[in-house]
Amino acid sequence: MALAAMGALVMLSGCDDEGGGSFPAERPASTVSGHAVDALIRNGDVKIYALSPDVEKGELLGTGVTDDLGFYQITLQAPSQPVLVEVTGGNYIEESSGQTVSLAGGDVLRAITFYESGDPISVMVTPFTNMAAGLVEFKVRNGTNLNNAITEASTAISTIAGLDILTTVPRDVTNPILQGHPLDDGMRYGLLTAAISTWTEQASVANNQPVHTLYTSIRLAKIMYNDIRADGQLDGFGYTSNTSSDIAALGFGIVPLDANTFRAAIARNMIAFLANERNATSLTVQNVLPDARHLANTTHAMFGSLPPVLLDEEGPMVSPVDPTGTNYSGSILYKLDVSDFTAVESVEFSVNGVAMH
After folding, report:
1. Sign of dihedral through CA atoms 125, 119, 151, 230?
2. In sequence order, what are the residues at sequence separation of 6 or more whose Cβ sits closer than 8 angstroms to the Cβ of residue 25?
């Protein structure tokens, strides 16, 4: 008996000496990093969760905080798996108005991606990754396996945006350092979030509310998330809250929402932002127009059966500045205010059909 026990001890010792004991090797550490943008979210709490096959949050894998540039970096030691990145709290400055907005309870931006153990990854968290997360939920709920749902959803939203929504770093288009910077995917991403800010500023006015106090970009991001995760479409019909299972027509206060809100309206405001005094880029309408048309004209199934509308279906707004009467004699200097979201290249006058210069 004693001899047998000693033999067993020797065998165990031999296994340990060869590195093949009962304890698994420590997982390699790597980082998950990126930017949280709606615009740049400062002091936001970032949490990374394991994601179950039915898109339920699992183990909390790591936490961090965004800096003044919206940047976060979190070290993970975890197995390869799908992960959910969530950003809550903090604040951002609306690009179009300069209004500071604090994220309240229930304000969340999400991104869902794949984590490979030991490999560093870059993951942005924006209104567009938030929409993709909602689309993942819809797809899994309707029978798509999680891995395929992640790929399909991020591809769909990236196709509509015209850039990789997960890996492209959005540029802060209000930062003067971008003066003279060419139009690249980072600038496109920044203009898309600025367009949302511009549209929500207009919606604030339509709702007779102070700009970006109640009707903010983060509020629209929440609505878009609940819209797409309800039925897989951005069509103005969706869940009425993060916890609701009731589908209803959605609105932004009194402003109705439909597929063309998320196509033509956002596309127009990519261009409209260029005339905003907070725009720090040197980009022109001609630079941005192809991207705006790409968004406005998309017929992706995500927008349902509603056909796209022309990007510029309304003519310029013309109003007299001085003089404002209707009858004149002699020579006069006639001043007009002419505006259009795509800018005005020239103005022609005619009197009784005769061109005037």
Report:
1. negative
2. none
User: In the chain, which ranges are E strands?
Assistant: 30-35, 45-51, 57-65, 71-76, 81-88, 91-93, 100-102, 109-115, 121-122, 237-239, 247-249, 251-252, 255-256, 317-322, 335-339, 349-351, 354-356
User: CA 62 to CA 67: how far, in whole Å?
Assistant: 17
Residue 227 has, within 13 A of its CA and on its CB side, a CA count of 28
206-232: b (≥16 Cβ within 10 Å) or e: eeeeebbeebbbbbbbbbbbbbbbbeb
350 or 291: which leads in pLDDT = 291
Q: What is d(CA 125, CA 37) in angstroms, rounded to the nearest whole number?
A: 6
* Among 165, 161, 60, CA closest to 112: 165
C-alpha–C-alpha distance, residues 135 and 139, integer Å: 6
pLDDT digits (tens, 9 = 90+) for 310-319: 776 454 545 5
36 vs 92: CA distance, rounded Å = 10
* 297 membership: H or E segment, kind and range: helix 285-297
pLDDT score of 243: 80
The whole-angstrom separation of Cα 181 and Cα 99 is 25
Over residues 131-147, mean pLDDT: 97
CA–CA distance, 126 with 188 (Å, rounded to integer): 13
